[in-house]
TrEMBL record:
Coiled coil: none annotated. Gene3D superfamilies: 3.10.20.30, [2Fe-2S]-binding domain. It holds the Pfam family Fer2. Keywords: 2Fe-2S, Iron, Iron-sulfur, Metal-binding, Oxidoreductase. This is Carbon-monoxide dehydrogenase small subunit. Residues 2-78 form the 2Fe-2S ferredoxin-type domain.
């Protein structure tokens, strides 16, 4: 079996993988980083989104062996070293950008990737960027608000329940 080495959330890791081992399997089963979710196995839902060398990637579409030497960031790597939430994570909390939470890791990773590419996206930009991520609970409204708020834009507060 081939050996793969990569940096995951700032830490050098390595392991033996079969050629067919998906990145999501390597992360979840090999490294026990279970924040990256498997939602559909067809690359349609985005729950498995991670950053590979700074680019948003669906971890169910990438073979671990092909990423030898890559730098991977998962949802577990988004928080600060002191445990403080990233701006996107904090905005998801502040603007109730989650319900069941299953899609949340992928949405946070997609939102962070968008803000790297476009620091001041419009609502239409956010909605278009999230087309590859499915949420079955929220209707996306608060997810969009959260990403816009994380960009530093003025967003109307979420109504109290």
């Amino acid at each position: 079996m081939p050996q793969v080495s990569m940096t995951v959330n700032g830490r050098a890791v390595s392991g033996e993988v079969e050629g067919r081992t998906l990145l999501v399997e390597f992360l979840r089963e090999g490294l026990r980083l279970t924040g990256t979710h498997v939602g559909c196995d067809t690359s349609q839902c985005g729950a498995c989104a991670v950053h590979v060398d700074g680019k948003l990637v669906k971890a169910c579409t990438a073979f671990a062996a092909e990423l030898d030497g890559a730098e991977v960031t998962t949802i577990e790597g988004m928080a600060g070293a002191d445990g403080s939430l990233s701006a996107v994570q904090q905005a998801f909390q502040d603007y109730h950008g989650l319900q069941c939470g299953f899609c949340t890791p992928g949405m946070v990773m997609a939102g962070a990737a968008l803000l790297e590419e476009n620091p001041r996206p419009s609502e239409a930009d956010v909605r278009q960027y999230l087309e590859g991520n499915i949420c079955r609970c929220t209707g996306y409204h608060n997810i969009v608000k959260a990403i816009m708020a994380a960009s530093g834009q003025e967003v109307e507060p979420v109504a109290a329940e």
